[in-house]
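Case 354 in the screening queue. Each case pairs one protein sequence with one candidate compound; here the compound is nicotinamide-adenine-dinucleotide. For every case the pipeline is the same: read the inputs, emit a complex structure as tokens, and attach any notable structural observations.

Predict complex for case 354.
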Amino acid sequence: MRLLVTGGAGFIGSALIRHLLATTDWRIDNLDKLTYAATPEALAACEGDTRYRLYRGDIADAAFVRQVIAEAQPDAIMHLAAESHVDRSIDGPAPFITTNILGTFHLLEAALAYWRSLPPERAAFFRFLHVSTDEVFGSLGPDGLFTEATSYDPSSPYSASKASADHLVRAWHRTYGLPVLLTNCSNNYGPFQFPEKLIPLTIIKALSGENLPVYGTGANARDWLHVEDHARALSLVLTNGKPGACYNIGGAAERRNIEVVRAICTLLDEMAPRAAGACHDTLIEFVADRPGHDARYAMDAAKIRAELGWRPSFSFEMGLRATVEWYLAHRDWWQAILGGRYDGGRLGLKGEGP
Ligand code: NAD
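Case 354 output:
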């Protein structure tokens, strides 16, 4: 099996590649632009593996994408490359449109031409798995869950760009017959997550004794999934999913943002106590809300459980504890980022009204 992963140097892509190299004998090529969000260190252990290769480049470069596919000759493509941070999409949507929409289009075109050129037995085996988010569904009211049949209603430039890409992927299946699979997953957390996202940002700010920004009242709720559970789910969907089908992936761990931040504070009170025994939650600071902030996401993952037998192995409490331990043990990694690519400052306020 030869697999081409896009965005494999990112948070989820690198967890996926580590998982697949450890559990299969597949050869894995990684097409990644290595943007600010990439964490090549997360693949350090794979560098010496002859089954792994990195192609550095842009999925929005059609000629480059065609060349990589021709060279890699994949049996499957798992597409994770994206601009992924909602707040950055508010400040500057352009790269989200280019990478998430145009990049997906170029990848689909190249995949289609390649798939059509394959001999019948390889063409029958080929899959294109597109990795998407629960954010495409918009905001839920106080009750209910997103299912695979929920209508799309994205709120942010990020989720709108992912929704556009999802529609393209479905269209390439319905119109051209490309054997696609589509997954929509809830918020991930775990090792090597870039410190702009809620959980790592809260951990590192708390360790530095800085205020812990919580948007609005902190009542916005998300479902949380450990990244290694996501990697296992993606691998199962690729090998056992039905072409043309979508699968929701979620951790059955809905938490309000303020609950997540308080849980991190409690863990740090135990693992990295502050001087004079002050509790970390005294650092919590409620700040201006994110423009267009969706109130609530929650996933119904019954389909992937029933059809593919997947369920999360981490409880949120267990996964969060392991994640806090990981950030404590890998200060060098995130301190280098804070010293250069991202200073921990507030992003995403450009969408505020006059
Ligand atoms: P990430 O930002 O950590 O990594 C994205 C990777 O894509 C980086 O390595 C980056 O260098 C690469 N990339 C960006 N633009 C590129 C381009 N034009 N060409 C080639 N490579 C490019 O993102 P992530 O959190 O690992 O998310 C991976 C995928 O999963 C994304 O498609 C995202 O929408 C989706 N997703 C993420 C979450 C989450 O909670 N993080 C949840 C559901 C779905």
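Case 354 observations:
- The mean pLDDT is 96.
- The first helix runs from residue 11 to 23.
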